[in-house]
Request: fold
Amino acid sequence: MHLFYRLFIRTLICLSLVMLAGANVTSFSFAQEQKKAPPAVPVKTAPVVKKTVSDQISLIGTTKPIRESVVASEVSGLVEAFHVKAGDFVTRGTALAMLGSTGELLRLKGAMAARAGIRARRVLAEKELQRVSNLKSTNSVAERQYDEAFYSHSAIENELLKNAADIEQLEYEISKKNVQAPFSGFVAQEHIQVGEWVAAGGSVVTLVDMSRILITVDVPETYMVGIKSKSRVRVVINSLGKTPRTATVSTILPKGEQNARAFPVHIELSNKDFKIKSGMAAVVTFSVGEKRTVKLLPKDAIVTSGNRRMVFAVNDGKAVPVPVKVIGYYDSDAAIEGALEPGVHVVVRGNERLRPNQAVKVTAP
Reply:
């Protein structure tokens, strides 16, 4: 009985050792297989393209409103109402301030009363002139008497014209007591308050038109010959992101800075959403020089290792390193020389840790 029990125990031990050895072999084979075939790395790619480009130069300018005006009052008066505050957006014709007009209204009332009296005297003068003219035709009145009636009538006519001009002037001054915005824009600064006296020509508000932005860039004379009026440029406002905006060269000033050998160039940029503020830094990229055809790929595709530059081209699901030479940058692209041909897809995301010939899996953009 004891002999049988010992044989049974030995058999169990042998079976356990065999199973353990088999498990170790399986684990080792699986590990080796995993080591031999690492999983494919997810990447994003973009094609190499062939385009015609010009050399570019990027310069920094400062944004400012397309229009800025210190709105003044044409007439004098006491500020009775001030309708706006700094930061408000107003449309053309919006009332900014109201000046007192009591004095002008009283003078207007007096001028209109005087007009009624002048008109009454004109009626009498016309009748007298007509009577004397009839007598003159029959030589029944002296020449002097006719002249007196004629010039008296003319004087009253002139007095009536002056009275009409006075009334028109007073009405104009009263209308100008309501100071209005000459164009749509933002109130940048307040210059008056209720209760202040404003002289004719006195400042009311500073108004800025931000619907379009003006950028002034000093361009070195080396590049001036390549810049044309009405040409398109690209503008990046770094504080608003890296997305480029399209703008237009509006003016190339003929007089430059003598010491710097640079010429001011005005750039106009649409700002319908009013996100661009005055005083922001703007990077303006001009296309200068002769056009040429080059191979372009995204700058993110380039991997730098010491003095060498390369990209990973995707070939049969593997990342193949290809040496390249960068010959220029154009916005977010780089112009290259090398064995890459247009249409070849290169890795632009996920290329930081790639190894040569490593398996890759292209994901959707």
Remarks:
- The radius of gyration is 44 Å.
- The longest strand covers residues 49-72.
- Residues 25-31 have pLDDT under 50 and may be disordered.
- DSSP finds four helices and 19 strands in the chain.
